[in-house]
Amino acid sequence: MTEAKKLYVKTFGCQMNVYDSERMAETLGAQGYEQVDTAEAADMILFNTCHIREKAAEKMYSDLGRLKPLHDAKPDLKIAVAGCVAQAEGEEILRRQPMVDLVVGPQTYHRLPTMMQAVDRGERVLDTDFPEEDKFVHLPQDRRPMRGPTAFLTVQEGCDKFCSFCVVPYTRGAEVSRPAERLLREARDLVTRGVREITLLGQNVNAYHGAGLDRGEWGLARLVREMARIDGLDRIRYTTSHPNDMEDDLIAAHGDCEKLMPYLHLPVQSGSDTILKAMNRKHTAESYIRLIERIRAARPDLVLSGDFIVGFPGETEADFQATLDLVAEVGYGAAYSFKYSARPGTPAAERAIVDADVADERLQRLQSLITAQQRATQEGMIGRVVNVLFEKPGRKEGQLSGKSEYLHAVHCDGPEALLGQIAPVEIIATQSNSLTGRLTAQP
């Protein structure tokens, strides 16, 4: 019997990269690779990269450089780079790093078996095409056993928005939605393997418009409602969304679809209409605020998160104050905020940047406000009973860790028999990024 080859995967960036890494591991698994937890144990190392932040490429080159002693000790070690940095800098990666055998973009990893045949022949392979065929059709149809009760499921890829700061349209391509029938089949398969919660993924997930079971076009709300009919699937989430794609039926689903969790990540990026226009966001601060009001009218207990960019080219103190005003008016349970970083090839990269010290100071002020809102949201959970899906043992003996319907991390004492189960928990305390609770009833 041939011994399985060992594969180590390191994933950078978003949830979609996590999903892609799983699918690449499955594809290579069909070629005889078995996943391991360390690079030292591997016959093949795969970096799945993200290009959203500044210096992402240089970080990748640094990580590759650290593999040189291991590669010297194991000359037959195969090294692959996948994802958005691979898409953006494919030829440069092969030029700068002779150890790399394979560079594959996000839209072509279904071709890995053929690529690996070439690599095994001693060839170096680059594939960063945007093929016409649907890569998901060529991926393994049966997912591997899951290690926990939650899973990601990519339903939509690419972006047609062309925000002036963003590389996604160039690295992931145009918006493409997967057919509902395939998504429902994959969701059912995940449930048979122990998954209780699925997060639907897309660069603009609420722009989903895929072929439906009735041969018509389905939006995300219709897909969510159909998934909610799957026995054993208890929770549905989706990320990341664009305000301009928040349609009426999706807003309604937040109020009447019990399995759609009361948490929404809806980035606005800035509270200044001047900056939003410069970002090519195609919405205003006022339209965003009115949209949030409609969503909260449908689901009053919804916890909202968002994204903010500080120090965008041309941002004045008045523009930044407008962002603080929007955050204060909307109220976020969580949010991600970043100092603007130029991405080569994007329109904003050609513009004069805000002084770094000014941007740093603004970011600190914004994060202080967001942290206060997050703390208030978490403190508001004390005394409430939430439903926790327990995913793994906690750090302490006899402790379990899971997520509430509001996506808060919750820790409490309980038996291991609750892993993979949902149980009511009374929240008794809050930490900086998690809640502490106690079971309201023993199983």
Describe the structure.
With 443 residues, this protein is of the alpha/beta class. The chain has four domains: 5-127, Rossmann fold, CATH 3.40.50.12160; 141-261, Transcription Regulator spoIIAA (2-Layer Sandwich), CATH 3.30.750; 274-379, 2-Layer Sandwich (Transcription Regulator spoIIAA); 385-439, Beta Barrel (OB fold (Dihydrolipoamide Acetyltransferase, E2P)), CATH 2.40.50. The protein is built from 14 helices and 21 strands. The chain has helices spanning 15-29, 56-65, 68-73, 84-96, 112-120, 135-138, 168-171, 180-192, 220-227, 248-256, 273-278, 285-298, 317-330, 356-379, and strands spanning 5-11, 33-35, 44-49, 78-83, 102-104, 125-127, 150-154, 156-157, 176-177, 197-201, 209-211, 217-219, 235-239, 263-265, 303-310, 334-339, 385-393, 399-404, 409-413, 422-430, 435-439. The strands form six sheets. It has a six-stranded parallel β-sheet, with helices on both faces. Strands 17-18-19-21-20 form a five-stranded mixed barrel. A three-stranded parallel β-sheet has the order 7-10-13, with helices on both faces. The longest helix has 24 residues, at 356-379.
